[in-house]
Amino acid sequence: MTRNEEEPVGPDALDRVTWALRRAELAVQAAKEQRLRALGMAVSHYALLITVHSQPGLAGAELARRLNVTPQAVASLVARLEGRGQVERREHPRHRHIQELHLTEAGREALRAADAVVAEVEQQIKDALGAAPAEQLRALLDEVCEAVRED
Amino acid sequence: MTRNEEEPVGPDALDRVTWALRRAELAVQAAKEQRLRALGMAVSHYALLITVHSQPGLAGAELARRLNVTPQAVASLVARLEGRGQVERREHPRHRHIQELHLTEAGREALRAADAVVAEVEQQIKDALGAAPAEQLRALLDEVCEAVRED
DNA sequence: TGTCTAATGTCAAACGTTTGATACTGACGT
DNA sequence: ACGTCAGTATCAAACGTTTGACATTAGACA
């Protein structure tokens, strides 16, 4: 037989779980983006708003870790959202040059509107899969996170 | 009761399926990127190589659709990979200024090495979940794609 | 045959993010 | 009390991608 120390790349390499994961994520992200565009909001803006909403008073650097982006990217987003009056930067009580991030009333209003349309996508998925499989999907996805985190 | 025409954004909004999907995709993508960096290859390069490998002779615009990016992004990637001698652009037999994309032998070699480490991530997931749940996950993800595509 | 349309490829500019480097602040230890 | 260190914020530059626009080409239809 011929030398095959290097096994060839199979034609079914695109049918992997990780590719299905990527396709699904792209499709969901596109669906969110499409719905949010009508409200003049980007997905990254929505992600920032809902994260600050669920945990008010976060520092920019800490927020960057949660969003999986760099602190500079957060600063850029905050600057824009602050210009729209949806986010405000308060001075940290103990550390002076650290700034706590909070939502303004306008920010909460914008988030409510955005979350309504994003929740539609979530509901769309649950309707198609059923409640139990959807929950199972969520559990499997969390397991995937765990599996690839520690190596 | 108070006015609640606008329902508040629940604190459990981050526990949705779509967020678990995003977290898992980011984690998997990060794992791939980390392993591919050692080979001096970006995830986008790997994605292009394996797509061209599975379907040789694709045009740039068609390839862009499969990768969910713009034709310019593909042109940029192809230019770089062509500079490395991993991809070549042949003239389409019928259409003159359309260029078929093919892998060179060096490209196939690089793809083999890259695919080996990417397959490790896939195996890592299958080991953690088990074969049957992994396949079920893949099926559920495909259902998610279908669910959000048509609206 | 001539024109129209759809599709491809490429150029230039704008955008958002990352990378690298710097300044500042508060806590901790010897 | 003082120096060291970790964490935060900000600036400048580079990178990769998208957006918009344009030239080219082949097939379709009259």
From TrEMBL, chains A, B:
Q: Which domain of life is it from?
A: Bacteria
Q: Which InterPro entries match?
A: HTH_MarR-typ (IPR000835), MarR/SlyA-like (IPR039422), WH-like_DNA-bd_sf (IPR036388), WH_DNA-bd_sf (IPR036390)
- Please list the residue ranges annotated as the HTH marR-type domain: 14-146
One GO biological process term: response to stress
Q: Which SUPFAM superfamilies match?
A: Winged helix' DNA-binding domain (SSF46785)
One GO MF term attached to the UniProt entry: DNA-binding transcription factor activity
**Annotated Pfam families:** MarR_2
Q: What PANTHER family has UniProt attached to this entry?
A: HTH-TYPE TRANSCRIPTIONAL REPRESSOR YETL, TRANSCRIPTIONAL REGULATOR, MARR FAMILY
Name of the protein in question:
MarR family transcriptional regulator
